[in-house]
Amino acid sequence: MRDTEGTGDTNGRAEVMVAEARKAFFVMFAFVALIWVVQLVNAADGYDLSRDHGVVPGDLDSLPALLSAPLLHWSWNHIEANSGPLFVFGFLAAYRGVTRFLGLTLLVALTSGAAVWLFERGGVDTVGASGLVFGYFGYVVVRGLFDRHLVDTLIGVVMAASFAYLLTVAVPGTPGVSWLGHLGGLTGGVLGAWLFRDRGKRSAGGGGGGGGEEPSATASPRADLHKELGDLGLL
C-alpha cells in the first residue's frame, strides 16, 4: 500500500523549501541592486558617502557605520569584485530561511565592523561588502554540521574546496585589503551558524496516539541523505 500521508508530508516540506529559496533569490537580488544604487549615488558624489559613513578605528562617531559600511564601496572595481560572491554565498545562506538569514546579516556586519574598529590602526575609512561575503561563506561551510543536514554539509564541503583561496585575504598582514574585516566577518558567520542552528528534534515517527511508527534510535546516513534530497525535490 502506498503511504500517501508520508508523500504528502515530503511534498509539503519540498514546497516550503522551494518557497524559501525563491524568497532568498529575490532578497539577494534586491540587496545587490541596493548596493549598486548606493554606488551610483556615491560615485556621483565623489565617494563622500564612503568617507562620511565608513568605519574609522577607535572613532566613537563612526560606530553607526558598522551597519552602513557594508553598503558602500570605493570604486567600481571594488563593488564588481564583491557582487558575485555576495549573491552566491548570500543565496546559499538564505535558502533555508530568510528570517534567520537577516539575523545572520546583522551579526556579521557587527563582527566585521567591530574587528576593524577595535584592532585596525590608522584613521582610514573602511567600507565594502566583503565582510558579509566572508561571513556568509563561513556560515555556509559549517552550517550543515551544526544543523545536521547532510545536503548542507555537502554544500559546505564543496564551497570550502572551491573557494578556499578566499582565506588568503583573511590572514594577518594581507596588503591592500581589510583583512581584519574579512576575519571578523568569517568569525561572525561561524558564530551565526551555531547561534541560528536548527534546534528542533527530527523524528521519523508519527504524532501522538498508537498509529505512529516508533522512530529508529540510529538513523541511517543514507536514509538521511535520501530524505534531504527528497525535501529538495531532487528525488
Automatic annotation (TrEMBL):
<dbReference type="InterPro" id="IPR022764">
    <property type="entry name" value="Peptidase_S54_rhomboid_dom"/>
</dbReference>
<feature type="transmembrane region" description="Helical">
    <location>
        <begin position="126"/>
        <end position="146"/>
    </location>
</feature>
<feature type="region of interest" description="Disordered">
    <location>
        <begin position="202"/>
        <end position="235"/>
    </location>
</feature>
<dbReference type="GO" id="GO:0004252">
    <property type="term" value="F:serine-type endopeptidase activity"/>
</dbReference>
<feature type="transmembrane region" description="Helical">
    <location>
        <begin position="177"/>
        <end position="196"/>
    </location>
</feature>
<feature type="transmembrane region" description="Helical">
    <location>
        <begin position="153"/>
        <end position="171"/>
    </location>
</feature>
<dbReference type="InterPro" id="IPR035952">
    <property type="entry name" value="Rhomboid-like_sf"/>
</dbReference>
<dbReference type="Pfam" id="PF01694">
    <property type="entry name" value="Rhomboid"/>
</dbReference>
<feature type="compositionally biased region" description="Basic and acidic residues">
    <location>
        <begin position="223"/>
        <end position="235"/>
    </location>
</feature>
<feature type="transmembrane region" description="Helical">
    <location>
        <begin position="24"/>
        <end position="44"/>
    </location>
</feature>
<feature type="domain" description="Peptidase S54 rhomboid">
    <location>
        <begin position="66"/>
        <end position="197"/>
    </location>
</feature>
<keyword id="KW-0812">Transmembrane</keyword>
<keyword id="KW-1133">Transmembrane helix</keyword>
<feature type="compositionally biased region" description="Gly residues">
    <location>
        <begin position="203"/>
        <end position="213"/>
    </location>
</feature>
<keyword id="KW-0645">Protease</keyword>
<dbReference type="GO" id="GO:0016020">
    <property type="term" value="C:membrane"/>
</dbReference>
<protein>
    <submittedName>
        <fullName>Rhomboid family intramembrane serine protease</fullName>
    </submittedName>
</protein>
<keyword id="KW-0378">Hydrolase</keyword>
<keyword id="KW-0472">Membrane</keyword>
<dbReference type="GO" id="GO:0006508">
    <property type="term" value="P:proteolysis"/>
</dbReference>
<feature type="transmembrane region" description="Helical">
    <location>
        <begin position="101"/>
        <end position="120"/>
    </location>
</feature>
